[in-house]
Amino acid sequence: MSLITDTILPLLTCLSPGEDANLRKQTKADSGVAVRSTRRARMCREKQELLKRSLYLSALLMAMLQGQSLDRPRLPTGAAALEVGPSEFKLKYHFLAVGKQIYQCENGHWSGNSTPDATLYDVDSNLKVRHSAGPSWTMIDGRSTMKAVGASAIHFPAPDGVSIDWLKLDVDKSRRTGEFSDVAIVQRLYTGGGKAPTTGCAARETYDAPYTAHYYFWTSMQAR
Question: At 10, which helix (H) or strand (E)?
Fold first, then answer.
């Protein structure tokens, strides 16, 4: 599968032609719909701006991925809590993720928590892993899965000030199989996009925030 055609291009469309035509008809007949239409249009513009940033970052990140592969990631000053001890852990996988963070509306505001929906690619742009709620990761053959402990995640604000946090996550030892059976730690670094809008929202609304990131999967060199 292609990184561009199968993952990025579908995010470019905020509304399908049918949805757009239907929304226009409803807007003419209902002032309440007009308000929601205006809000949705604003959210659409924000989404497209975030996507432009993510597309640009994904190109840069893929270049970085080609260059460093299984090299240890370089962290900025102040991010020591995200470090993985070189004498205790070995880097097994390094992937580039492209996808979205899904937010729910809660009491007129976007939830502080999001659900990931992303695909992870290797250095040759081959799809390898699907990332979803949990947070969890599944190899495309379905034989390897793992789930991290989200509640104990270590956060570090993204250096660009506008993207989702960088993370260090412990993997649940009882929820890992196949190629992931020895993975102990996951890092999410070099994020681009992924934050919810600052605008208000209505009940049952959702928002898909495009994002990119690097994911590093580490195995323990000691029994865990």
Answer: none
